[in-house]
Write a structure and sequence with these properties.
Layout (H helix, E strand, L loop, with lengths): L9 E5 L4 H12 L3 E6 L7 E4 L2 E6 L2 H8 L3 E4 L3 H13 L4 E4 L6 H13 L5 E3 L5 E4 L3 E4 L8 E8 L2 H10 L5 E6 L10 H10 L5 E7 L4 H12 L4 E6 L17 H5 L35 H6 L20 E3 L5 H7 L2 E3 L2
Parallel strand pairs: 1-2, 1-5, 2-4, 5-6, 6-7, 10-11, 10-12, 12-13, 14-15
Antiparallel strand pairs: 3-4, 8-9, 8-11
């Protein structure tokens, strides 16, 4: 037995016609998953052939579920359109939505997660920014390589996609019952605790590996849950050493004590043409007093350069010492000649 999906799971891919959707749908088919179609409103009614399988493209998730009996949606939609894709899957009441997309704004994640809760929690969301779920030998919904492990009694839940792959490879001799990459974004649909609860109820999972990352308190809450509710052995690993103080996983709100205690950086002047700092100022020259036609002969004769030091030898321009300039020279001309001062 596995959790969340099994050999009978029927998968549709939102964004199937994109490059990432096509590539990973092929890998899912190669691993034995039952990919039954895709969703793209602009290409509804067409078909694509992947790994020798002709897959229909539907205009909506609800239509795809009606026509194919799909119960899992894997979402490869770009970040700007991911929220609407997830909301569509929730409105269609698909049991499982795996959001692979990276870079979804936190506000969008909060909104579709809240929408899922408001509809009664009929749709379980995994992700966003996650590698997906795999039950070796049964089904693979996401981007996890199916060739790095074998089926076995170890349940794996991880925030990190890379560490998910690494741990699956390290445990290949023991085998994995189900591996879930929950994603490391601030707001995710399925947490460590949700996965631990499912593994505890799975009779084929005999031990659990939990991988976390620095930042936030999800691992601490999972530890409390393990003490109270999990009877199977759990091995946990939190990647990283330290996190910035007062920054658990995101920038605190301006009204928070952490934000108030943080030193504020100086604001850089605006570069807008209408701003005062963007007004053009006279260019300051550091060449020679000869650039000004109003310099007297005495002033030109008194101008001298500093001998080049070893540090300055490789520089294209040598710095000029302050020059003695005719006091009758207008101030505007003095500014153009550089660090000049009137002669004595």
């Amino acid at each position: 037995m596995s959790i969340l999906l099994d050999e009978n799971s029927r998968i549709i891919v939102q964004g199937l016609t994109g490059s990432e959707g096509t590539k990973h749908a092929g890998r899912m088919l190669a691993s034995g998953s039952k990919v039954v179609g895709g969703v793209n409103p602009r290409k509804a009614g067409s078909t694509v052939t992947i790994e020798g399988v002709e897959l229909p493209i539907f205009g909506s998730v609800a239509e795809a579920m009606t026509e194919t009996g799909a119960d899992v949606s894997v979402i490869f939609v770009p970040p700007a359109f991911a929220k609407s894709a997830v909301v569509e899957a929730i409105d269609a009441a698909i049991p499982l939505a795996v959001v692979i997309t990276e870079g979804i704004p936190v506000k969008d994640s909060a909104e579709f997660w809240s929408h899922a809760k408001s509809t009664g929690g009929k749709t379980r969301i995994v992700g966003p920014n996650c590698p997906g779920i795999i039950s070796p030998g049964k089904s693979n919904a996401g981007i996890i390589p199916a060739t790095i492990t074998e089926a076995g009694p170890i349940g794996l839940v991880s925030k990190s996609g890379t560490l998910t792959y690494q741990m699956m490879f390290e445990l290949r001799d023991l085998g994995i019952s189900t591996a879930i990459g929950i994603g490391g974004d601030p707001i995710i649909g399925t947490t460590h605790i949700d996965a631990l609860e499912a593994f505890e109820a799975d009779p084929e999972t005999r031990a659990i590996v939990m991988i976390g990352e620095i930042g936030g308190d999800a691992e601490e809450r999972a530890a409390e849950y393990i003490k109270a509710h999990v009877t199977k052995p759990v091995v946990a690993y939190v990647a990283g050493f330290t996190a910035p103080r007062a920054r658990p996983w995101a920038t605190p709100a301006p009204s928070s004590p952490a934000a108030a205690a943080r030193p504020r950086a100086r604001r850089r002047p605006s570069r807008h043409p209408a701003s005062r700092s963007a007004r053009r100022r006279p260019r300051r020259r550091t060449s020679s007093a000869r650039s000004s036609p109003r310099c007297s002969d005495d002033a030109l004769a008194s101008a001298r350069r500093r001998p080049a030091s070893p540090v300055d030898a490789g520089r294209r321009r040598a710095r000029v010492l302050p020059m003695r300039i005719d006091p009758r020279m207008p101030r505007r001309a003095r500014r153009r000649t550089g660090r000049a001062r009137p002669g004595r």
